[in-house]
Each structure stands twice: as structure tokens, then as C-alpha cells.
Amino acid sequence: MTYSIRHAIHPSDSKSYDTAKLREAYLIEDLFQKDSITNVYTLYDRLIVGGAHPVEQPLKLETFPTLRSENYLDRRELGIINVGPNSKVTVDGEEIALANKEALYVGMGTKEVIFHPAASGEALFYFNSAPAHRSNPTKKVSLNEAETVELGSLESSNHRIIRKLLVNSVVETCQLQMGLTELQKGSVWNTMPAHTHDRRMEAYFYFNLPEDQAVCHFMGEPQETRHLFVKNRQAIISPPWSIHSGAGTYNYSFIWGMAGENLNYDDMDKVQPTELK
Questions:
Q1: 12-275: CATH, from 3.10.110.10, 2.60.120.10, 3.40.50.300, 2.40.160.10
Q2: Which stretches does DSSP call E strand in 73-142?
Q3: Of 105-109, 192-196, 225-229, 263-267, the least confident
Q4: Which UniProt keywords apply (predicted)?
Q5: Which amino acids are annotated as binding site for Zn(2+), given as ranges?
Q6: Residues annotated as binding site?
Q7: Tens-place pLDDT, residues 38-69
Q8: Is 24 helix (H, G, I), strand (E, B) or coil?
Q9: What is the pTM of this model?
Q10: Sheet (strand 234-238) strand order
């Protein structure tokens, strides 16, 4: 079990950063370590971005000093999405099977979460955790149960399928929202037109990208944009004041996770491509 802390950054500071400083502040490069759970505790709405990679043994989600709690979920909720082969998670003694891209919501007050190795291949669980104010039931969400939207077109290079997995129209949460966007063949742009949302922050986890390809992630204020090149299975922390969009050298998938003031998915301030600088 490892953890690190990422501090919140003012936009006027961020726009002076060079590439190395931007990557240090916003890019998470090594989420999956063999037989370990990685936690990145951000001071943006105190969202945790994490990865569990059980290979030889099950891994228990343990608390760490920053949480100041006996158990990890004493004051938190948790969203898990399986980004590896079919695997299992045990929640307070109940064993739950998760197929690739299926999600699991775990409510505040849960005492024990255990990630299990896969029967075939290496298990990979991506997760987000946010502070919670009440306990909601644990619930598994399959792709068929997700709220699914098809957007964009091949002509605009952004034909994509959005699967809203852990949103309030599918499962009751306190503030956490998570979903999956899959770029279709021939399309590379995600979240275009770009937008910001001061009411909540967001984290992006890019995956299903060939190892020799990359995604150029665009961030920053709409009039002061920056970019970071991101590899497969890496994540970006996106502040509320920042756009979050990307274009890949190959089609890919990404998981978005949000925490903040409200649960209205459409609460965003759109920025047209011609307005970006």
C-alpha cells in the first residue's frame, strides 16, 4: 500500500509551469505496481485516484495516515472499475465478480475491501474515492445497466460511446461520479467541445491504448491552454478551472471520475474550439 499527496494549484501559478512541472503536478504515471495498491490523495475536493494490481495474492484496501481514520471508508465512498480480465472484489465478506469495464460502488462505513488476482491474466482495478456524508448500499453496475450515450461523428474525429456507470441516475452516491468513454475506430478527440466546471474537479484515466501510442491531453484555462503527452494506463488530475480534452495517435478509452458540489452531469461551461487559445 503506497500513497502520495497532490496539492491544489492556482491557475495563475500553473500557466507559468514548464513541461516537467506540469507533469509533476497533474500526471500520475505509475498507478499499477505488482501486488500493491497505489493511492494519490488530491486536494481537489479530496478525491483519491488509485490502482490495485493483485498478482500473487489478494490485496486489502488499508487506511493511511492522511485519512486519520481506522478504516479507509469510515468517512468515504469508493468507485471501482475493472480495467483488466475478469476478477473479484470482496466487500465485507461478500465476493463480487467484475468483468472487464464493469463497475462497483462501495458505500461509506464499509470495513473491508479486498481485491483478488484474476484466474487468467493480471488483475487491474482502477478506483476513485471521495468524502461522503451518508452510507449508500454497495452496488455492482454492468455495461448493460449503464446509462449509455453515443456522441460525435467520424467526420469530426470524435465518434465515442459514453457509459455513465456510477452516476445518480444509475446508483445512489454522495458526490462521486464515474464513467467510461470509448473512442471508436478512426476517432481520436475526446470531450470536444471542451468545458470547465467550477462546481467539481475531475480525473481522467487513459487505457486500452497501444503501448507505442500516446494521447495528447489538453488542460489549462480556455484562454491559456497547455498539453501533456500521456501513455497507456496513466491518469490526469484536472482542476475545476481547467479544460480536460485529448487527442490520441490511436483510438483509446478513458475513465472519468468527478467529485464536488453537485451530481448534475450536464453542469458544465462549454468552450467552443474557436474560443480556445
A1: 2.60.120.10
A2: 76-82, 87-91, 94-98, 103-106, 113-115, 125-131, 139-141
A3: 263-267
A4: Isomerase, Metal-binding, Zinc
A5: 195, 197, 202, 244
A6: 195, 197, 202, 244
A7: 999 999 999 999 999 999 999 999 999 999 99
A8: helix
A9: 0.96
A10: 27-28, 234-238, 200-207, 253-260, 177-183, 160-166, 147-151
